[in-house]
Amino acid sequence: MAVGKLERLERRTRRMRKTVTGMAERPRLTVHRTLKHIYAQIIDDSSQRTLAAASSVALKISGGNIDAAKAVGKAIADAAKSQSIAQVCFDRGGRLYHGRVKALADAARESGLDF
């Protein structure tokens, strides 16, 4: 039986979430991308709270391209700094680490987040 693309994505996501969890001292930076936009959240899984969030929608950037991903990465790093979060663990959401996901991660690293 053929396995669909979304089901494979969900499997990869579940497999990653077994090992990547966000604690209070090192929350999880998760990335979600769609065709039009890219979203990033910093989540504390122990208290089940979103500590910071940024997206291309909130920044009013049209297009889900690499430039938008860099802007969202910088914005999420700034939001983390304002909450005195320096270290995070990166959750790529089952996606490959290239393109927009990599651009967001690199921009967040350049802006001061450690992961």
How many whole angstroms does the radius of gyration measure?
14 Å
Q: What is the first-to-last residue Cα distance?
A: 38 Å
Number of domains: 1
Order of helices and strands: HEEEHEH
CATH topology: Nucleotidyltransferase, domain 5
What is the count of helical runs? 3
Structural class: alpha+beta
Query: What is the helical fraction, as a range of percent?
Result: 25-40%
Largest sheet: 4 strands, mixed
User: What is the averaged pLDDT score?
Assistant: 91
CATH top level assignment: Alpha Beta
Number of strands: 4
Name the CATH architecture. 2-Layer Sandwich
Task: Name a few traits of the molecule.
single chain, globular, four-stranded mixed beta sheet, Nucleotidyltransferase, domain 5, 3 helices, 115 residues, alpha+beta
Overview of the structural elements:
The chain is α+β, with helices and mostly antiparallel strands and 115 residues long. It has one domain: Nucleotidyltransferase, domain 5. It has helices at residues 5-17, 66-82, 100-110, and strands spanning 28-33, 38-44, 49-55, 89-91. The chain has a four-stranded mixed β-sheet. α2 runs parallel beside α3. The longest helix is centred in the middle third of the chain and has 17 residues, at 66-82. The protein is globular and about 45 Å long. It starts with a helix and ends in a 5-residue tail after the last helix. The mean pLDDT is 91.
